[in-house]
Amino acid sequence: MTVTPENAVTPVECDVWWAGPDLADPGLLELLDAHERARHARFRAAADRDRYVVAHALVRLVVGAAAGVPPAGVEFALRCRGCERGTDPRPEPHGKPYPVGAAAGVQVSLSHSGDRVVVALARGVEVGVDVETVAGARDIEGLAGFALTAAERADLEALPVADRTGAFFGYWARKEALLKATGDGLSGGLGNVAVNAPDAPARVTAWNLPDAPPHVRLTDLDAGPGYRAALAALTDAPLSVTARDAAALLAR
Asked: 93 lies in a domain?
């Protein structure tokens, strides 16, 4: 894998749309397809339903706007590289959404956590986005054993105790954004990807999979206090990231 230095290459334009579950509206359900509406109905907690409908309606709105098609007419194919490798046994449809038909060529990724919903969109370049709530009550030590390399765990343990939870979720957001960009998801193994310390500009230092992408860009996103977020793109070109407020787009 190569991380190309900044140069005169035309930047990849990436829009990052931010929203919250408070923007959920019954009218947004009309934009979802039958499978999405069925999944939405299975969530027991209202907060989970709200995050889901906002995220999936927003994906259709931004892809539709980029492709010039109605949001309810946007079609997706799902790809899971874990299924292709035989390492992800889930029977239900899952994987990274790829717009098809009139929207083919638009690349999109979504994530939600707590009061944050985020959708990243680019053209012709695969992207992955992740946002994480910094949750101090979780078993950070146990999660670190699963998600971090030995060097990353050592760097985490060298930090003051008060800083470790935020730093851990900084690692997690970067790694999950990378695995979402490739379509691996968590089945690709967070521990197979190594990144630099969260207090430094985001950078991939190793990717221990035989089909790791040859080029990648990684950057942190500002999700506000109490959150960590990151964006990854499979390109050797620099990224030009524009943060956008999705409130007006979601208004029904």
From this structure: yes
Residue 166 is part of a domain; what is its CATH number?
3.90.470.20
Which is it for strands 239-245 and 12-19: parallel, antiparallel or unpaired?
parallel
Lowest mean pLDDT among 13-17, 84-88, 98-102, 127-131: 84-88
What is the tally of structural domains in the chain? Answer: 1
Quote the distance between the C-alpha of residue 165 and its chain's center: 20
Strand 75-79 and strand 106-113: pairing? unpaired
Full-model pTM: 0.91
Q: What is the dihedral of CA 174, 109, 14, 65, to 10 degrees?
A: -160
Rg (CA), the chain: 18
CA angle, 170 as apex, 184 and 249 as ends, to 5°? 75
127-133 β-sheet, strand order: 127-133, 227-233, 217-221
Angle 161-182/140-147 helices, nearest 10 degrees? Answer: 40
What's the count of helices (H) and strands (E) in the chain, helices before strands? 7, 11
In a domain? residue 213: yes
Report d(CA 225, CA 109) in Å as an integer.
Answer: 22
Q: How many other C-beta atoms lie within 10 A of the C-beta of residue 233?
A: 29
pLDDT tens for each residue of 31-84: 999 999 999 999 999 999 999 999 999 999 999 999 999 998 899 998 777 676
Q: Which residues are paired to 181 by β-bridges?
A: none
